[in-house]
Design brief:
This protein has 328 residues and is α/β, with parallel strands linked by helices. It has 2 domains: 2-126 and 296-326, Quinone Oxidoreductase, Chain A, domain 1 (Alpha-Beta Complex), CATH 3.90.180; 130-271, Rossmann fold (3-Layer(aba) Sandwich). Helices cover 31% and strands 26% of the residues. Helix 6 (181-190) links the parallel strand 9 (173-178) and strand 10. Helix 4 packs across helix 5, helix 4 (127-139) packs across helix 10 and helix 7 runs parallel beside helix 8 (224-234). The protein is globular. The protein starts with a strand and ends with a strand. The relative contact order is 0.15.
């Protein structure tokens, strides 16, 4: 099969190769998916770039955890009725050498989720990390019904979904930060009530003004290292920061501002959700897809041969939303 892979970490154009490798076979409890699309996420480019570690866990890695396609082979113990099923996949490359940047991927049957007929295969490649991250950030710890929510990076892959999930879940006010007019339009289209340009406005002060000085109830945070001071100023007493990302591995905590507000700081990574949280997220996202209530922010779609370019778009922050590889 045709696949993109790397055997060492480094810049995308130096280490990513597209070529023929062996086609996998489904084992017991597994399915093989003939992929149509593969989603490129920040975690994919960080792993390939060696941001977390220069050592590879496997001699050769086919990247990307997200993708969508059709089940074309089932292993023992998997109902034959799943053959031909349109699916989206999650955690394909988490702790595994072969992800979705290939014509086929084999993985446990439960990691191939039925994709509703009204949802495109391109959108299916955006669900595993962006949508499930956003869903958990909004729904964890009692959810956001009747609350005020600040979504950092409201035009991004996660932020765009988080705005929608917060509104659907009954948030009283959703504020989104952006860095320009194009991103403001995307966040507004997702349903944000208020848009704040963090480059030209005081985000914390806007949040205080919008909440009569009390601050927001929850902050969905994509870069805690950059925004923690602002978040503490924007947060209400007993409020919560739900952080799924940071540009630095270690961050000083402003202890006194945090303790005076009884602030709660929730960390999570979508790869390691508990079984219960994963089940809840899958069911919630599937229900909204079936109801056709979600908008998908696709900014770039490139062929597998241009995977290095796709990585650079994500790595450089140039993408306004999800970048998808057209595998087929």
């Amino acid at each position: 099969m045709l696949a993109a892979f790397y055997t060492r970490t480094g810049p995308a154009r130096e280490v990513l190769t597209v070529g023929e490798i062996e086609t996998p076979e489904a084992g017991p409890g597994e399915v093989r998916v003939r992929l149509a699309t593969s989603g490129v996420n920040p975690s994919d480019v960080k792993t390939r770039g060696g941001v977390r570690s220069r050592e590879l866990p496997f001699p050769r890695i086919v990247p990307h955890s997200d993708g969508a396609g059709v089940i074309d082979q089932v292993g023992d113990g998997v109902p034959p009725g799943r053959l031909g099923e349109r699916v989206w996949v999650w955690n394909a490359a988490w702790g595994r050498p072969c992800g979705t940047a290939a014509q086929f991927v084999v993985l446990p049957a439960q990691q191939a989720v039925p994709l509703p007929a009204n949802t495109s295969l391109e959108a299916g490649a955006c669900l595993g990390i962006p949508a499930l991250t956003a869903y958990h950030a909004v729904h964890c710890n009692g959810g956001v019904a009747g609350k005020t929510v600040l979504v950092a990076g409201g035009a991004g892959a996660v932020g765009h979904y988080a705005i929608q999930f917060a509104k659907i879940a009954g948030a009283r006010l959703v504020v989104a930060t952006v860095s320009g007019a194009a991103k403001a339009a995307l966040a507004r289209d997702a349903g944000a009530d208020v848009i704040v340009n963090y480059r030209t406005e005081d985000v914390a002060q806007r949040c205080l003004d919008l909440t009569a000085g009390t601050g927001v109830d929850r902050i969905v945070e994509l870069d805690l290292a950059v925004n923690l001071k602002t978040d503490m100023a924007a947060l209400r007493r007993d409020g919560e920061i739900t952080a799924y990302g940071s540009s630095l591995p270690e961050i000083p905590v402003p202890f006194f501002p945090a303790i005076l507000k009884n602030a709660r700081l929730q960390f999570f990574i979508v790869y390691n959700l508990s079984d219960a949280d994963r089940k809840s997220g899958l069911a919630g996202v599937t229900a909204l897809l079936n109801q056709d209530r979600l908008k998908h922010n696709l900014d770039g779609r490139l062929p597998l041969a241009r995977i290095a370019e796709a990585h650079e778009l994500v790595e450089g922050g140039q993408a306004l939303g999800n970048v998808v590889i057209d595998v087929a």
